[in-house]
User: What shape does this take?
Amino acid sequence: MEVIMLIEFLKKLLKEEKVVEKVEKVEKAEPKVTVDESALIEVRNSAKEIILEAKDRALRIKSEAEEESSKVRSKAMEEEKKMAVARAEVDARARELEERSRTLKRAKEAIDKMTSDAEDLLRQRKESLEKIAGLTRQEARGELMKEFDKELIEEKSKKIREMKEEVQKNVEEDAKKLLVETMRFGSTDYVVEYTTSKVALPDEEIKGRIIGKEGRNIKKLEELSGVEFDLDSSQGEILLSCFDPIRREVARLSLERLIKDGRIQPARIEDIYKQTSEEIDHIIFKAGDDLCHRVGAYNIPRDLVYMLGKFKYRFSYGQNMIEHTLEETKMGVALAYELKANVDTVRLGCLFHDIGKIVTEDEGTHIQLGVDLLNKHKIAEEVVNCIAEHHEDKPFSSIESAIVNLVDHVSGARPGARGEDYESYIKRMRALEDAAKQFDGIDKVYAISAGREVRVFVEPTKVDDDSTAFLAREIAKKIELEQTYPGVVKVTVIRETRVTETAK
Assistant: This one.
């Protein structure tokens, strides 16, 4: 750019010098016209100043151009040196690669030759072996593979045995630790609780008011509640007897309120009983809802929540069903997390596992009643299977069922969880057996499954096949009328005929 400017400036300078020359020529020429002398001097001086300034500027530009040219030449020389060095390096690298390529080519040729020699040698040896062994190549290969497979099987068997021994050595200890850790999640302060269906009386005279004229008050109470009121067995209190704990609780609270109110008459009894029943229903639903929230189960059908709330008044061998269910569910969820099982399935399986125990409208085992109830409300099949299999009536269909079974045993069998009046238990079992023994043709009677089943063996000479069905129905009816028992009692009559002959 500066070079171009220099050229333009020089052109301008030459033009000004020509102007000056023309002026001088005019001055030397013979004047034809009159010229202002002072103006002419001023023009001449101005032209000289311009020429001097132009020359200085030209020298400066020339100096700068020479300096810039020197720098460019110096930089060009440096770049040329670098390019020369780079060309030298490239040439050296090319020579090195060429030499390496020749070396690799020679190595490849040597390897190919060695491979060819080895193949020839191997072929010769195979031919020699075939001649010596009298086997073809395929036959020899088959024999070799058989031997190899045998050795491999033995090695695998050895490894498997070693792994089994190692697992067996650690599995029991790990299982104990896992169960202890699981039980820690479900531990509660609750041990054993017993229901007492007794109402304390302020004085003995109030018994007469409870009985009423011609017994109308006590009859009304028993008719509404379905509970038997025993006023004579205990001094200063009334004993309420009924297997249904909810009816017994409603009757107890109703009687306490009637005694406190003082107006004991049939109309008032009906009002108090209705009011108490409604309050108990509310308490039951609230207890069920609280249980569901404590175990983390949500979106449960309202009817099932109400059924779960009945656990508040239900006890199994002295163990409250709400506490048992809560404890079992906590342990089941903890165990499911450890074993990578389906936590939600185990949660619901533990929550509903004993729901059949509070189904009183239908007959059947608590397992079958629970399964039918859950199917009615379209609960998931995996959860229903946990209920159906938690007493091992069916083989376990999943690990979730096995977990529910395990934690149910742990919760019920741990020390302090349940209590039992063994004298009453034995008395009840004997009463069931005695009820069946009163019929003719009975050989042996056994009450099994904690009184849930009675097995009757008859004498085949006295009872025929047609009579066994009638006998089973009569025994069941007698037990139903005379005995008090939880759930249902299954009566099984067995008639076995054995005929023995001796070959002489």
About this structure: DSSP finds 15 helices and eight strands in the chain.
